[in-house]
TrEMBL record:
It comes from the Bacteria. InterPro entries: Biofilm_reg_signaling, EAL_dom, EAL_sf, GGDEF_dom, Nucleotide_cyclase, PAC, PAS, PAS-assoc_C. Residues 88-136, 319-374, 448-500 form the PAC domain. PROSITE patterns: EAL, GGDEF, PAC, PAS. It holds the Pfam family PAS_9. It comes from Telluria aromaticivorans. This is EAL domain-containing protein. One of its GO terms (molecular function) is cyclic-guanylate-specific phosphodiesterase activity. It catalyses: 3',3'-c-di-GMP + H2O = 5'-phosphoguanylyl(3'->5')guanosine + H(+).
Amino acid sequence: MNTTVSSPDGTALLAAENSALIDNALDLMVVLDANGRFQRANAASRALLGYGPDELIGLHYNDIVHPDQHGLALALEASLRKVHPEQSNVAVRLRRKDGRVVLMSLSARWSDQHQRMFLTARDITEQQQARRALQRSEAALGGMLESIGDAFFAVDSAWRITYANRKAGEFVGVNAGTAIGRPLLEVAPDLEHSEALPRYVRAMETRQPDTFELYWAPHALWIEVRVYPNDDGISVYFHGISAKREAEQALRKSEQRFRNLFNQAGDSVMIVDGALRIVSVNDQACTRFGYARDEFLGRPVTEMNLGMPGGHAVLAGLRAGQPQLLRMDKLCRDGSTFPAEVQISRFDDEGEEFFLAVIRDLSDREHAERQLRESEQRFREVIEMTPAGYLVASPDGALRDVNPALCALSGYPREMLLALRLHELFVSFPLATLGEGGNGGDGPSVVQDMEAVLRHRNGFHIHVLFNGSIKRSEDGTPLSLTGLMTDITGRKAAESRLQQLATHDTLTGLPNRALLGERVQQMLDACAYGGAVAVMFLDLDRFKEVNDSFGHEMGDVLLCEVATRLRRVIRPTDIVARLGGDEFVVAGYCATGQAAAARIADKLLGVLTAPITVGGHDVIVGASIGISMFPQDAQTREMLFQTADTAMYRAKGAGRNRYRFFEPEMTVASQVRMALEVSLRPALARGEFELHYQPRIELAGMALVGMEALIRWNHPERGRVSPQQFIAIAEETGLIVDIGRWVLLEACTRTRRLMDEFGRPVAVSVNVSARQLAQPAFVDEVRTVLARTGLPPECLELELTESALIEDIEHTASMLRELKRLGISLAVDDFGTGFSSLAYLRRFPIDVLKLDRSFVLQQDQDVSTFDFIKAFVDMAHALNMAVVAEGVETGEVLDLLRAARCDQAQGYYLARPMTLSELRSVIEASGAPKAVTR
Ligand SMILES: Nc1nc2c(ncn2[C@@H]2O[C@@H]3COP(=O)(O)O[C@H]4[C@@H](O)[C@H](n5cnc6c(=O)[nH]c(N)nc65)O[C@@H]4COP(=O)(O)O[C@H]3[C@H]2O)c(=O)[nH]1
């Protein structure tokens, strides 16, 4: 700028200095006149505007103001002149002389006094450009920080947030914009207790960046945090890595699984690299080949003598993408070999080539296959040799395989059998087509002990026992039937025979007790809603006599004839059974109750009272029948039998050849009988028995000749029980043997004492039951008693019943002979009630016949009775036997007996049975009794 020195004094110097300063100034300095034209300019104008100071003089400011800013310039001028005479830092774009536009910051002052405008201007083009660039950069950075996936925040050294992007805000639940300037812990209080804070502090203090992973509990997620220190604080980036961690964990597990699989695989596994060096082997490979892992690793597989395939063809195939499956023998370290199946495949890993070989040891499989072959061979041999028929059939029943035994069993050659179907081979075969055995999965798979009937080629039937199995697919559809069968035709016949034997009486062929029970039960079941059934127990009255008289064979003939007759009488719906011995049972429906039953019973008795010819003799066997009716008498089968049995005994007791219906009182009687039986057992040991004696009188001289010992039972509760009530029970139970032994000893002992007391012989007669007589030692017992008591044998008479005599005639006869040899006397009791005839008695050494009371106990005089007794006595005498009449109750009878020359008598008319002391008085009064004589 040109300066004018106005005076040589200090003022001029100052002006010179100012002028120099102005010219040296870097800013543009100009003075404009009131019209806006340049009056002066400093040297900086050249650099800033391209105009020298002189060139500007006279120019209007709008000559250098950018045309776009002329308005601004005018407004500025106006404002300076009228409003604010001083204004600074107004940015205005100017056009340089060379046309370039520059931005200038103007400071202006209007001086009214001088009517001048003083301007300074500084080029701020670059500054403006730099600021713009900075703004752009900041905008770009902010955008970037917002758009990056990471959350980001920065704090200054005072831990105040200087920046936070949206993600960071969201992370702690605040608006990122509002967080700026606030303390970090105020915005994110959860940080205080997290592991992150100490690391931020350390990064701040050490100025060292840090990266770490952190579990952010408030959000339950893993984050990765990167911390960068900067000039004033730290910047923190973080982002969620839960998915990554999960993926890593999954990968780790998967790798672990793979490693486990690899190591625990049943097969040997080797991984070989492209140079055929072993890079990995599993445990099984080490174990199988006998090498340690280290010995494998790194060594070329071709060098190790393992028998591994390494040929070019194999490699070429693998490299062409074809996995190889090879069958070869492998070599182990110890020199042993094993057959193996080797599967090799190729794979790339990060550009490197590898081969994976899976070596399956086939030793076990081959061994198993060999065993299977051998087993199949053995099976075939067994099937060929087995005596059981063997077949395999397809689901449609077609035979697929058979063995020679089946050919033999069926009579067909193999080829013919293989052309048959099950339903053609078998008459009945439950599984003729397997579909019928259940097509679904619920059909049987095992056929056990199934009976079937096979049709022989010649037409006859063979029973077989079939055992087999049905092979099924997974959904249960039958695939085949395999089975073995054995011929059970013989067994079936035996079974049916056994069944017959088990249910029928062998002699008569009638149903036995078991089948009777079954059939009666069926009858009762059929009557569940009405109807009646009669059960009749039938006992032949004279079977025993026939049996004993004519022998067992004739007895059997009689029983068969009885069976035939009974069968003939009954209806087909009825049943007749034999229980054993001479006991039969008839059971039948009786719609009209007792009346119908009575008609049946009459018919039964009718056919049994008609003579039966046995061994050339006509025999009338007769029967006693007990009838029980369902439902009125008994509701169960057992009770029906029991009540019918009871009624039958009653019928027998009532005089035979009759029937009796059951009556409830009969049960009472049988219950009494049972009670007696129970108390009879201990009676002997308890000393409840005593003997009474009934005197026997000789009719010729009416003198006492002896007495009959009669047992009495003094029952502790029932008082005196009659022998008629308990002797039969004692016989049935066998107690009679012991009781009889006691009676014999007691009678002999007492009689011997009486003899000693009165000094004369006393005869005693003792009853002996059939059971006693059947004892082999009976004779010895009598001998011993006589010896022990000292009773003379001739003073003892044994009374035997007719039935006892005919039990076993041969044995009885020889025993009686032995008894006779002892010197004792033998009498037949109750003569006339049984079947025996005098002629028949001649076979036994009998001394006395005791005529039953039913013959002599007559109320009316009857000539024919006398004649009968007379004839009987005469005949007995002719056979050398004495006759003793029993049960003489009246003088008339006594007279009759005496007239008939009967030898002796006893009875209430003469004397009742009495105690020993009473007997003593009688003996004493009677004088010397004679010995019992014939
Ligand atoms: N109505 C009537 N009865 C008369 C008369 N005179 C005697 N009696 C009875 O007739 C039965 C005669 O004996 P039994 O025929 O041997 O018949 C005996 C005998 O078979 C048996 N018995 C008695 N004691 C024994 C014994 O010690 N052993 C054996 N095995 N049986 C005995 O018991 C049966 C009955 O004996 P008891 O009741 O003592 O009955 C006795 C006797 O008391 C009379 O005038 N009228």
